[in-house]
Amino acid sequence: MTLIKHRFSRRGFAAGAMAGALVGPQALAQAVTATSDMGPFYPLGYRGETDADLTRVAGASARAEGQVIEVVGRVLDKLGNPLRGAQLDIWQANHHGRYDHPQDPAVMPLDPGFQGFARINTGADGSWKLTTIKPGSYDSPIGNRPPHIHMDALGGTTRAMLQMYFPEDAEANARDTLYQSLGERAPTSVASALGDHRYSWDIVLLEG
């Protein structure tokens, strides 16, 4: 089930109207990022993580296992306007393909050096940056799930549940039931490779 919730306020409506007036005719329509189910392993509670580096945990003796990657991007509305202060809740499986969640039945080990969840906000230009590890794939009731990163994106008036996939896993993505369910909009969920284990992924919300 696709989950998109709308939150409206007088302040948000006025800000959105003003932003649209300022952008003018140069604004370009953007393809809205395909939304996905929340999934069963949404973090149970916010634990105070405010940094954008999931590879280090305070008090842990070692950095997270796996390939360290960097993901950069922007949060935009469908007219291409950057969304300042948009909130991103981010969570994913660790290098072994296991979530730090009590309902995850996986027998793969947890990684004490992996944060697993973060909450960050976009800058004035809608930009965000994340340092993490590439998540492992894992078996699920609907088949093997390719590596992906979950994001709960909250703009001024729109909330969207998203999953970011990796371009080098194209064949595994194509076999994935949830990826297939996105239909022709599936490519909007795939990051672009920048080289040196860096990726770029812009998130486009239906509204600001």
TrEMBL record:
Keyword Signal listed: yes
Sequence ranges assigned to domain Intradiol ring-cleavage dioxygenases in this UniProt record: 71-99
Keyword annotations of the record: Dioxygenase, Oxidoreductase, Signal
Keyword Signal listed: yes
InterPro entries to which the protein is assigned, alphabetical: 3_4-PCD, Intradiol_dOase_C, Intradiol_dOase_core, Intradiol_RC_Dioxygenase
Alphabetized Gene3D superfamilies for the sequence: Aromatic compound dioxygenase
Family: Belongs to the intradiol ring-cleavage dioxygenase family.
Stored PANTHER family: DIOXYGENASE, PUTATIVE (AFU_ORTHOLOGUE AFUA_2G02910)-RELATED, INTRADIOL RING-CLEAVAGE DIOXYGENASES DOMAIN-CONTAINING PROTEIN
Protein name: Intradiol ring-cleavage dioxygenases domain-containing protein
Lineage of the species this protein comes from: Bacteria, Pseudomonadati, Pseudomonadota, Alphaproteobacteria, Sphingomonadales
